[in-house]
Amino acid sequence: MIKKTIQNIILEFEPEAKNILPALKKISAVFGYVSEEDVKIMAEYFGVSESKIFETASFYDEIKTEKQPEILIQICNSANCTVNNSFSIISEVENFLKIKAGSSASSKFKLEEISCLGRCADGPVMVVNGKIFERVTKSSLHGILGEYL
Amino acid sequence: MKDIKIITEYWGKINPLKIEDYINVGGYTALEKFVSKMNPEKAIEEIQKSGLCGRGGAGFPMGDKLGMVAKQTGEKYFICNLEESEPGTYKDRLVVDNNPHLLLEGIIISALSIGAQKAYIYINGNYEKQKEILEIVILQAKEKKYWGENILGSKFSLEIEIFSGAGAYICGEETALINSIEGNRGEPKIRPPFPTSAGLFGCPTAVSNAETISNIPWIISNGGKKYSIIGSKNSPGTKLFLLNGAVAKPGCYEAPTGITVKKLIDDYAGGIKRGKEFWFAQIGGACGKLLLEKELKAKMEFGKECECSLGSGSILVVDKSVNIHDLLISWTDFFRRESCGKCVPCREGTFRLWEIAKRFRDGEISDRDKEAIQDILWTLDNTTFCPLGKFAGTAFRDAVGKGIVKF
Question: Residue A149's pLDDT is what?
């Protein structure tokens, strides 16, 4: 398989303003994050300043501008999931992995509290490295994490 | 009386991925009628007559919005808003899952009625499956000449493109959504100018919620007058309601506007879940009001005079076993995270409210915090740049004002 490079990713997009966000999303999805070098290449291709590209990239949850930990665990704490005990799932992960939600102290794990994904009838919702798990319980949680550890 | 179903009529009865199934139950006849027997002015007149108003939460009259853009000249756009990030709300996702061609037909008619050359569907970045569904049905409809060059042999032409969001609640706000397609940060723009005069790439643009648009084929087929007598007088029609939390049968139900919260809970969602004790209900997502048991007779409608705006139509029933500290943190953390940071009252207000909620949970709330709460809530309500900030404190305010929490 040909290795994806930033160059051949951006060539999939016409250099128009409306393609900036889709291109950033793609780069972030392929490489895990958008690096400073990527921003430079993007800026040149789209004919805008680097700050402009970074400004857009840093705004959206789905676009990462920093290298991500090996295992990114995201748990929804919006109202519906909260009513379904998402906070107890969050503390269970914190205690089990000895990390704090929102902290970047560990390079291996990161736990984030995230906003509603529109799967409110099936909460609590947890996302591990992009894969979505529904109706998570304290017991099912360990099985899920076990596959990643 | 059996309720009239406009959007959910064929859910579960037809294969959403088969255009023939939709056509067999009368699908795309509204578009055929529009193209052969109507003109854009007449279509907008019918939509105005129907009284259909925006289902995303604001309740702006759909016909008026279309009319404003229709009278402008030059390049124009129509955008279907499927960002849907309001917590507890997934009705537009269900529309796509169950009858995507209904939405697509509505988009085509709406776009043609304003004279737009191009329609965008701005879809929530997390709705990957729904994006795939839309891609499939858009192709099917193109093969049947329902969009593209010379639609059904007429002079009408239209391009349709899906634009996928990247995770930002604020992008449900129309000017922020437009900024996002333009490759900018999804921050709201100052209004006026309103998008209806200067929207996407500076061109007149109508942005409408997916559920609103899904009502259009029915209105074109049956006439605006017939629609206007359904449900509440000020905001007629049916609405998708999402009932979740401590109800026996959680789910999505289509009911006429003007229905009471109590009736929705009891008659549609099977009442309160066995073994649970009702505490309060939150109406319309994270930015929604809280209603106590004695207030459940509130009618679900839009408009300045209504008791409780129905917002996005989601109803979260909270029972007494729920930890209110968790909910306070949930509400405040949501707005802290989703505040775009453009204006200080919202950026700081949502952050401080979240800090106070955490201190309250940890038993560390000070007298100064207690005094600050009212100031922060007033500031959010009166001074923020866009509606996100204005409604960021609604639930918190009700929780304090209605005695749900005591400091």
Answer: 87
- What pLDDT is stored for residue B1 in this prediction? 44
**Domains of chain B and any CATH numbers:** 19-228 (3.40.50.11540), 238-319 (3.10.20.600), 325-401 (1.20.1440.230)
List the single residue in B with minimal CA-CA distance to A62.
B166
Whole-angstrom distance, CA of residue A83 vs CA of residue B318: 7
Å between A70 CA and nearest CA of chain B = 21
Task: Count Cβ atoms below 10 Å from residue A2 Cβ, excluding itself.
Answer: 5
Question: In chain A, whose CA is at the least distance from the CA of B282?
Answer: A79
- Selected residue of A33, A60, A76, A127 to mutate for chain B interface (largest B Cβ count, 10 A): A60
- Sign (positive or negative) of CA dihedral B96, B123, B334, B290: negative
Tokens linked to B218: 């029915």
Select the residue from B75, B82, B84, B90 to test the A interface by mutation, using most A Cβ atoms within 10 A: B90
Residue A127: closest C-alpha in chain B: B126
Domain boundaries, chain A: 6-57, 71-146
Would you tell me which residues 200-239 of chain B have a C-beta closer than 8 angstroms to some C-beta of chain A?
Answer: 201
Please judge whether A79 and B337 are an interchain contact, meaning their C-beta atoms are less than 8 angstroms apart.
no
Yes or no: say if B246 and B317 are a contact pair by the CB < 8 Å rule: yes
User: Which is it for strands B300-301 and B289-292: parallel, antiparallel or unpaired?
Assistant: unpaired
Strand partners, B209: B81
Alpha-carbon gap, residue A118 to B84, rounded angstroms: 8
- Three-class DSSP category at A55: helix
Mean pLDDT of A85-98: 96
Residue B238 sits at φ, ψ, to 5 deg, of -110, 165
Separation in Å, CA of A147 to nearest CA in chain B: 23
pTM of the model: 0.96
Q: Per residue in B331-373, pLDDT tens?
A: 999 999 999 999 999 999 999 999 999 999 999 999 999 999 9
CATH for A71-146 is 3.40.30.10
